[in-house]
Amino acid sequence: LYLGTYKKHKNLTVLIKAYANLPQSIRAKYQLLIAGKRDQRYPEVPDMVRALGIGQHVIYADSVCDEDLPALYSGASCFVLPSVYEGFGLPLIEAMACGTPAVASRIPVFEEIAGDAAAFASPHDSREMSSAILKVLNEKEYCATLRSKGLLRTERFSWLHAAKKVKEVYESI
């Protein structure tokens, strides 16, 4: 699962190449769901899917309502966020909060958010991204570890946690 916009910095072309690099047996078992509104200014996404001959394994969900997000994340075997840069990474937190193992770009914001609760790969190396995805899909113990660590890690980003921190600041003043 990828969830987000079609923008250059989201790095979808690396994700598509990474998926195409996966063994045929894995692609036959796991489809790539790209969820997010398509942007006609970035036609390279569907063009690359066609050029790599993986169209039968790629599903596009142009519109997903907020109420459906937990089911979408929870139903995914792996969530991938291949961005080159981000201001934050809410979809990464959402995926981990749903118990979905995540693969993310090795960029500071994602490393800070996920810590050791996600698999990381270079956003510039589709082969490394493929390896990280394959490890999550093939190694059940590793996958289970990411799931449990992700659930624990997301507690740091809850509204309750934020409210407690704000209260601490108020009380200290």
Layout of secondary structure:
Layout lengths: L1 E2 L8 H10 L2 H6 L2 E4 L8 H8 L6 E4 L7 H7 L3 E3 L8 H8 L4 E4 L2 H7 L4 E3 L4 H13 L1 H15 L4 H14 L1
Parallel strand pairs: 1-2, 2-3, 4-5, 5-6
Neighbour order of strands in the largest sheet? 1-2-3
Silhouette: globular
Q: Residue share in helices?
A: 40-55%
Number of strands: 6
Oligomeric nature of the chains: single chain
How does the helix and strand content classify structurally? mainly alpha
What order do the helices and strands follow?
A: EHHEHEHEHEHEHHH
Strand content: 5-15%
How big is the Rg? 17 Å
Instruction: Provide the residue-averaged pLDDT.
Output: 94
Helical stretch tally: 9
Q: Unreliable runs, pLDDT <50, ≥5 residues?
A: none
Largest sheet at a glance? 3 strands, parallel
Question: For the terminal residues, how far apart are their CA atoms?
Answer: 44 Å
In short:
The protein has 173 residues and is mainly α. 51% of the residues lie in helices and 12% in strands.
